[in-house]
Amino acid sequence: MSDNSFAFAKSRRFAPLFCTQFLGALNDNLFKTALFVMISYHGLGANSILPPAQMLNLGSLLFILPYFLFSSISGQISTRYDKARLARAVKILEILIMAAAAYGFYIQSAPLLLAMLFCMGTHSTLFGPLKYAILPDYLGEKDLMMGNSLIESGTFLAILFGQILGTMAAGWPHGIIMTLVVLVALLGTTASFFMPYVGAANPRQHIDPDIIRSTKQLLKDTFAQKELYTAIIGISWFWLIGAVYTTQLPTFTQKHLGGNDNVYNLMLALFSIGIAAGSVLCSKISRHRLHLRLVSVGTIGLTVFGVLLVRLTHGQHYEPDQLQGIATFLTRTDAYPVILCMAAIGFFGGFFSVPLYTWLQTASSDEFRANAIAANNIINGLFMVAAAIISAVLLFLSDSITLLYLAVAVGNPFLLAYLIRLDKRFIRRAP
């Protein structure tokens, strides 16, 4: 690939979108993490009806619920209106939400903050379809793979930075977190005003306010198209894997690695940076073209390093008084194979996901693309809920996170076999 592979990234047709998405994902995770840490460790909502653990479960539900409720309507809106104008409207909404959240931090109101968490989930639901649907409008075919890889990389790095910053800000004076969430929203909104107009895909698109009916129709229309169905199943499996690894990572780090919260941050950073690196390299290797065989490469890597991670850590068990910091952890010879595995799992996750996102975009018509992304978001949410249920059942039966990780790793080949059954291009050379 030529040296100007990233030339488009500096242009107005990509940079404002990237910044808008990055700052939105950063703020989502900054706000959510700070709220959850305040509830868990700083007594926020101590006098509420619900105990802290239940408030955390409620918060997680409130954040993901809008994906089920509003994705169909979001897809319709993104089709009917200019996506750049819509992006600005959504980001202005984020400022209002974060202003209310700042007031919630000021008065230390858990109910208000949980309500704003639902609103931020709604904001993300509205922005999700337009960010991926607008990318083919901005980028030519030769830049689309790299564009997706940069969006993917930026999103996971934003999640990482948001979680780390949120954890730190939770222990600082309330004025700091109040300022941060509003400031990031303002910066994201400013970036959105530089996004070029693209025109509406279908100005006559009907918007059905009936959530149940519109959702059923959306899924029916999407799944009727085999390529879209196949891409969505693959992408949703990727999010299931990510949910299992990241949700259980704090406990895994404590029980099986003997690391404290700083070691957990290290593991999370390795996973996120691995995804970012894998996403970019996947695009470089593809040389501007869609190669579904790279999904198979990603699956093999996820399986091999997932099983190896379990092999390295199964049977190890540390007590709370045995936890080590980063400095001590890195003096252990057994730490480095684990570090390699965690980074490699993220790396091959990037290989797995980027071609599927590109396929979803290119297999959709211009008028249906936003709806396809909306349907993808719904199924992603279902798979993440399934991940939570499966995790709860397996942990109840075995009380071993390594066996849960093993189940995910072993499940990868079966998912790949299903994808190959649907489309042979996962094992065939691209024409």
Q: Can you tag this structure with a few keywords?
A:
Growth Hormone, Chain: A, 78% helix, mainly alpha, 431 residues, globular, 14 helices, single chain
Would you kindly provide a written description of the structure presented here, covering whatever features stand out?
The protein is mainly α and 431 residues long. The protein has two domains: 12-193, Growth Hormone, Chain: A, CATH 1.20.1250; 225-431, Growth Hormone, Chain: A. It is 78% helix and 0% strand. The protein has 14 helices and no strands. It has helices at 15-41, 52-80, 83-107, 110-138, 141-169, 174-192, 211-223, 226-257, 261-286, 293-313, 326-329, 335-363, 369-398, 401-422. The two termini are 18 Å apart. The model has no long low-confidence stretch (mean pLDDT 91).
